[in-house]
Write a structure and sequence with these properties.
Distance between the termini: 44 Å
Largest sheet: none
Number of strands: 0
Shape: globular
Structural class: mainly alpha
Strand content: under 5%
Number of helices: 12
């Protein structure tokens, strides 16, 4: 019989990952399209900002988010007073932090997929008078299925496994911000190895399945 706290924490973890991946998909398509097909004056700067979470220590990002959106900061007070939103130690804060931290895991595979679309298909669409929006939805996205799957799978898995950023901005409030990666740490601190193992094995199994499916899909569509 599984512990109710265990199930609740897993539910919160997967809920965070689903919401983050869903929102990131639209942000990722927009940014990947800009980086792939639009001549931006500061393209290198945009690419650097998108990729920065890949090399930035999670605790650094979490620290600056915590400082920027705390109740005593200008941004924190502005959001609370005018929008009634608080990002520190709340689920909304977890989603916001996850969107930033998982951004390159969505954008990079999409950009690679968009850049690989046959240029003749794009030229044919534009020659027929089709708009850029039409070409995006009817030519680019259908020819980027593998990249879209990879981007969504990697973003979901990365969000599930977040630790540093989640710990800094969300803390570990049961039922509100406590996710599985933090729960493992908490259970180890109280020497509850059984429950820590349940969390760890669940994340291990999920990561294995996601990676296996990625290789399977890539092999199936690239042969």
């Amino acid at each position: 019989m599984m512990d109710s706290d265990f199930l609740q924490t897993l539910y919160l973890t997967f809920k965070l990952a689903f919401i983050t991946t869903f929102i990131l998909f639209f942000i990722g398509v927009f940014l990947a399209y800009l980086l792939s097909f639009v001549k931006l004056p500061f393209k290198s700067l945009v690419q650097t900002l998108v990729a920065l979470p890949l090399v930035l220590p999670p605790s650094v990002l979490g620290f600056y988010l915590l400082v920027s959106f705390s109740a005593n900061s200008f941004l924190g007070q502005f959001l609370k007073e005018y929008l009634n939103i608080s990002l520190v130690f709340t689920f909304q804060g977890l989603v916001f932090a996850s969107l930033i931290f998982s951004l390159p895991f969505m954008v990079n595979p999409l950009q690679s997929a968009f850049s690989s679309v046959n240029k003749n298909l794009l030229d044919a669409s534009y020659t027929l008078g089709k708009s850029k929006i039409y070409t995006l939805f009817r030519v680019i996205l259908p020819n980027s299925k593998v990249g879209i799957f990879s981007a969504c799978a990697m973003s979901f898995a990365h969000t599930v496994g977040e630790f540093g950023v989640v710990m800094m901005i969300g803390g570990h409030k049961k039922g509100e911000t406590l996710v599985a990666s933090i729960a493992i740490y908490d259970e180890l601190e109280v020497l509850n190895y059984t429950l820590a193992h349940q969390y760890a094995f669940t994340l291990f199994t999920l990561s294995f399945i996601i990676l296996l499916s990625l290789y399977f899909v890539n092999k199936k569509f690239t042969l």
